[in-house]
Design brief:
By secondary structure, this protein is of the alpha+beta class. The chain has 6 helices and 15 strands.
């Protein structure tokens, strides 16, 4: 395996220096965390599935003009992405009441919301990613009003497209988290979709039965976690033909 310099390690991914200037290699781990890393575990084959699912969804979004950091998948666990300046916000879109929204507002889980709701969370593990308002975001300089306009416009387009795409394979997109970054090219800056889109950061329910096919199976000890992720990939038509097999990651260069 190629020796690469590790730049960052998060809960679910490792970023390595890319082969060309302005690129990174994004490596998907099997590690799983929940409740701000209070619960930790391993979901066998999760990295392979998330890499493939995120590749597919990023490509489909790119086809409708959504700018993303994705370039191409390199192998079972890695993809090549553009290096961006990550905006320290998690953009959460909610279509159906679930998780913290249901508990915070006393809404029965599974209730269809009157309209899609966008929430902002400040990316800071030490503070447990607190919810913030547009006032906080602009006052502290995390993003400008213009940045937020671009983010909201892109987020709504992503939600509309993915809702239809997933419903077409019998999956309800309950809610999901997006991250964005600033991409600098030829003295110009534009906002692009970054990170990943997978069952790790989406709530995905069977449209008929309501069965969960996402990380809630891990969070809530529902069992058959790997099978939930595999079912999403199977319905999208992208489950690896050889099945989910592990693969050693790149050697880290100190």
């Amino acid at each position: 395996m190629a020796r690469r310099r590790q730049l960052y390690e998060g809960k679910a991914k490792i970023l390595f220096e890319g082969p060309e200037p302005g690129t990174l290699v994004q490596y998907f781990k099997d590690d799983a965390t929940a409740f701000n890393a209070q619960k930790k575990g391993t979901i066998t084959g999760k990295g392979v599935l998330n890499n493939r699912i995120s590749e597919y969804l990023m490509q489909r979004l790119g086809e409708i003009g959504i700018p993303t950091h994705f370039i191409r998948r390199l192998n079972m666990r890695e993809q090549l992405v553009r290096e961006v300046e990550i905006i320290p916000l998690e953009i959460v879109v909610r279509n159906v009441a679930a998780g913290s929204l249901a508990s915070r507002l006393g809404i029965q889980e599974g209730t269809r919301l009157p309209r899609s709701i966008i929430e902002y969370y400040y990316k800071n593990d030490a503070l447990q990613d607190p919810m913030v308002s547009e006032e906080h975001i602009t006052a502290f300089g995390w993003a400008s009003t213009h940045d937020l306009d671009d983010i909201v416009q892109l987020t709504l387009r992503v939600n509309d497209f993915l809702t239809g795409l997933l419903l077409g394979v019998g999956i309800t997109l309950v809610d999901f988290k997006l991250e964005f970054g600033r991409l600098y090219e030829n003295d110009e800056m534009r906002i692009v979709l970054a990170d990943e889109i997978s069952p790790d950061n989406c709530r995905l329910w069977d449209a008929k039965t309501g069965e969960k096919m996402d990380k809630d199976r891990f969070r809530r000890d529902l069992g058959k976690v790997e099978e939930g992720y595999q079912e999403v990939a199977r319905r999208l038509g992208i489950l690896p033909e050889a099945g989910v097999r592990d693969m050693k990651g790149p050697e880290v260069m100190q």
